[in-house]
Design goal:
With about 250 residues, the chain is mainly β. The chain has two helices and 20 strands. The strands form four sheets. Strands 2, 4, 6, 8, 10 and 11 form a six-stranded mixed sheet that branches. It has a five-stranded antiparallel sheet with strand order 1-3-5-9-7.
């Protein structure tokens, strides 16, 4: 049985793999959301996202699904297999309401790997009638939540995924190459080489692809590496492995 999922505040969600686009000075969103990521299978008709207004005045949440480009607005977003209803959600103080993620069944699905889209939540805050002169200006906040669109019956096994990942360096380079041959996205929370943190932000590697991460110092063969992966519930799981050093093969003289 899975443990009950906590409700994350919008600020806390940023620490769990969400992306925030702040359009003014730093600010805190006045709503909370139940999860840090969502999974929808190809044949599911819909999924539900619950939001709560944690502030003291009404807010409106504009929401849509796209490919995650931060500059997107709903009118410019690329086609996605899911749509949100209602696209504008009005929340009174402390009120909880759902956003429905509706499967449009309008695209050919990738049956060989999962796809990643983003649920955008843009907080529109009306003028606060209780605000006094000299109060800090409230700015709008946009959050992006990961939305995995997955073939039917597929379930992410984080331990199995950790065993499929490969970590290696070229002999002359101070960069770590991470290969993800699996059909799932690998969401990293942290990577530590010889107990030294290497990531400044979270990292996501697409299925059947690789990324290169700069290292603070050049490792030797079998240097200990610890990394954490984020599962479907937003939980962090820690794993250990070693870095493999690959020697460059020099061409023979003719």
């Amino acid at each position: 049985m899975r443990k009950p999922r906590p409700i994350f505040s919008a600020c806390a969600s940023l620490m769990l793999g969400c992306t925030a686009a702040l359009y003014s000075a730093p600010a805190a969103a006045e709503f909370s959301i139940q999860q840090s990521r969502y999974v929808v299978h190809h044949s599911e008709r819909e999924a539900t996202v619950f939001l709560k207004n944690t502030g003291d005045y009404p807010i409106i949440i504009q929401n849509w699904v796209d490919d995650g480009v931060v500059s997107n607005v709903p009118q410019q977003a690329v086609a996605a297999p899911l749509m949100t209803l209602p696209p504008l959600l009005h929340l009174e103080p402390q009120q909880i309401k759902p956003i429905r993620l509706i499967n449009k069944f309008s695209q050919e699905h990738n049956q060989q790997a999962e796809s990643l889209y983003w649920l955008n939540l843009y907080e529109l805050v009306p003028s606060n009638p209780q605000a006094q002169a000299g109060d800090v200006l409230k700015v709008n906040v946009r959050l992006q939540m990961k939305l995995f669109y997955r073939p039917d019956k597929w379930q992410l096994d984080t331990a199995k995924l950790s065993r499929q990942l490969r970590f290696h360096c070229d002999e002359a380079e101070q960069r770590l190459r991470i290969d993800n041959p699996s059909p799932f996205y690998a969401s990293f929370g942290e990577i530590m080489v010889a107990k030294e943190p290497q990531l400044q932000t979270t990292l996501t590697i697409a299925p059947s692809s690789s990324v290169s991460v700069p290292l603070y110092k050049r490792p030797v063969n079998k240097t200990p590496l610890q990394f954490s992966l984020i599962d479907d519930d937003g939980n962090v799981q820690v794993f250990n492995t070693q870095i493999q050093i690959q020697s460059k093969v020099m061409p023979e003289d003719e």
